Amino acid sequence: MNTDNTDGKGSVNGCHKNNHSPIKHMLHMILCCGLPIVIIFALPYIAKINPAVAVFLGVIAPFICPLMMGGMIFMMFKGNKNNKETDAQKEMLISEKESREF
Predict the structure, then answer these.
(1) Series of mean pLDDT values for 10-residue runs along the chain (102 residues)
(2) Where are the transmembrane segments (predicted)?
(3) CA 11, 6, 71 angle in degrees (round to 5)?
(4) For residue 59, which of 36, 41, 38 has the smallest C-alpha distance?
Protein backbone atom coordinates (compact mmCIF):
# COMPACT_ATOMS: atom_id res chain seq x y z
CA MET A 1 0.00 0.00 0.00
CA ASN A 2 1.28 3.46 -0.91
CA THR A 3 1.51 5.50 2.30
CA ASP A 4 3.25 8.61 0.96
CA ASN A 5 1.56 11.52 -0.82
CA THR A 6 2.35 10.30 -4.31
CA ASP A 7 0.21 8.34 -6.70
CA GLY A 8 3.01 5.94 -7.59
CA LYS A 9 4.05 7.96 -10.63
CA GLY A 10 5.91 10.63 -8.69
CA SER A 11 3.25 13.32 -8.76
CA VAL A 12 2.26 14.65 -5.37
CA ASN A 13 -1.36 14.01 -4.37
CA GLY A 14 -2.17 12.76 -7.87
CA CYS A 15 -2.00 16.24 -9.39
CA HIS A 16 -1.03 14.98 -12.82
CA LYS A 17 -3.16 11.84 -13.11
CA ASN A 18 -5.17 12.68 -16.20
CA ASN A 19 -2.28 13.34 -18.59
CA HIS A 20 -2.28 16.90 -17.30
CA SER A 21 0.87 18.63 -18.41
CA PRO A 22 2.74 20.92 -16.00
CA ILE A 23 3.65 22.99 -19.07
CA LYS A 24 0.13 24.46 -18.98
CA HIS A 25 0.74 25.65 -15.43
CA MET A 26 4.05 27.21 -16.44
CA LEU A 27 2.52 28.99 -19.44
CA HIS A 28 -0.28 30.35 -17.29
CA MET A 29 2.19 31.62 -14.72
CA ILE A 30 4.31 33.27 -17.42
CA LEU A 31 1.24 34.90 -18.93
CA CYS A 32 -0.09 35.92 -15.53
CA CYS A 33 3.10 37.59 -14.39
CA GLY A 34 4.51 38.61 -17.77
CA LEU A 35 1.46 40.37 -19.20
CA PRO A 36 1.37 43.15 -16.57
CA ILE A 37 5.12 43.69 -16.99
CA VAL A 38 4.78 43.97 -20.77
CA ILE A 39 1.86 46.37 -20.40
CA ILE A 40 3.78 48.58 -17.96
CA PHE A 41 6.83 48.71 -20.25
CA ALA A 42 4.59 49.51 -23.24
CA LEU A 43 2.67 52.31 -21.47
CA PRO A 44 4.87 55.17 -22.76
CA TYR A 45 4.39 54.00 -26.34
CA ILE A 46 0.66 53.46 -25.87
CA ALA A 47 0.34 56.90 -24.27
CA LYS A 48 1.76 58.50 -27.43
CA ILE A 49 -0.98 56.88 -29.49
CA ASN A 50 -3.92 57.09 -27.07
CA PRO A 51 -3.42 58.54 -23.56
CA ALA A 52 -6.84 57.40 -22.32
CA VAL A 53 -6.05 53.77 -23.11
CA ALA A 54 -2.67 54.12 -21.42
CA VAL A 55 -4.30 55.42 -18.24
CA PHE A 56 -6.83 52.59 -18.30
CA LEU A 57 -4.14 49.95 -18.83
CA GLY A 58 -1.97 51.55 -16.13
CA VAL A 59 -4.85 51.24 -13.67
CA ILE A 60 -5.75 47.62 -14.43
CA ALA A 61 -2.22 46.24 -14.98
CA PRO A 62 -1.49 45.60 -11.27
CA PHE A 63 -4.72 43.65 -10.92
CA ILE A 64 -4.26 41.32 -13.89
CA CYS A 65 -2.10 38.84 -11.98
CA PRO A 66 -4.39 38.50 -8.93
CA LEU A 67 -7.45 38.14 -11.15
CA MET A 68 -5.83 35.45 -13.27
CA MET A 69 -4.56 33.66 -10.16
CA GLY A 70 -8.08 33.69 -8.74
CA GLY A 71 -9.35 32.12 -11.96
CA MET A 72 -6.61 29.52 -11.84
CA ILE A 73 -7.41 28.62 -8.23
CA PHE A 74 -11.13 28.42 -9.06
CA MET A 75 -10.44 26.04 -11.95
CA MET A 76 -8.11 23.98 -9.75
CA PHE A 77 -10.76 23.52 -7.06
CA LYS A 78 -13.40 22.82 -9.68
CA GLY A 79 -11.21 20.05 -11.07
CA ASN A 80 -10.39 18.67 -7.60
CA LYS A 81 -14.08 18.35 -6.80
CA ASN A 82 -14.50 15.86 -9.64
CA ASN A 83 -11.29 14.04 -8.73
CA LYS A 84 -12.32 13.69 -5.07
CA GLU A 85 -15.47 11.85 -6.07
CA THR A 86 -13.54 9.38 -8.18
CA ASP A 87 -10.82 9.05 -5.54
CA ALA A 88 -13.44 8.26 -2.91
CA GLN A 89 -14.94 5.62 -5.20
CA LYS A 90 -11.50 4.11 -5.81
CA GLU A 91 -10.79 4.01 -2.08
CA MET A 92 -14.09 2.23 -1.47
CA LEU A 93 -13.26 -0.38 -4.10
CA ILE A 94 -9.80 -0.90 -2.63
CA SER A 95 -11.18 -1.28 0.89
CA GLU A 96 -13.79 -3.77 -0.37
CA LYS A 97 -11.08 -5.82 -2.09
CA GLU A 98 -8.93 -5.75 1.06
CA SER A 99 -11.85 -6.86 3.23
CA ARG A 100 -12.53 -9.77 0.86
CA GLU A 101 -8.91 -10.90 1.09
CA PHE A 102 -9.13 -11.33 4.86
Answers:
(1) 47 54 81 88 94 93 87 78 62 67 58
(2) 26-47, 53-77
(3) 50
(4) 36
